[in-house]
Amino acid sequence: MGMFIEGLQKHNVRLFDSAGVEVLYLRGQIEINLTAVLGSTNWQDENTSDTYLGIKSIDFILQPAKLSIAGNLVEPSRGDMIRYEGYDYDLIQTGNGTFWSWSDGFKTFYRIHTSRANVAS
User: Fold this and answer.
1) Using an 8 Å Cβ cutoff, are 75 and 56 in contact?
2) Which of 14, 25, 57, 92 is positioned for an S-S bond with 32, CB 3.0–4.6 A?
3) What's the pLDDT tens digit per position in 33-87?
């Protein structure tokens, strides 16, 4: 299993080097510059009239170790935003009540679920 993990780690470095984009993670007045990989998630959610709505989120995949405020690692949560290419993306809650999920079985990356909010100022 050691060789597999080493290969996965090398792949992850190359993934962020080749497909990574610069984003700004916002929590209140705190801004964190990060590299993320773009993704998406499709799921269904039931609304108040018992009909199912198709929802597609824009996902930002990032390394949990990079999401640090004052030296403390934090999890993505309600009210946080991501700014990318002039747009703000609100974190959205999924059907299981979280604003993120693990991107893989090894719990390597956060997959943060968002929806475009507005034009950034």
Assistant:
1) no
2) 25
3) 999 988 887 765 555 555 445 566 789 999 888 999 888 999 999 999 999 999 9
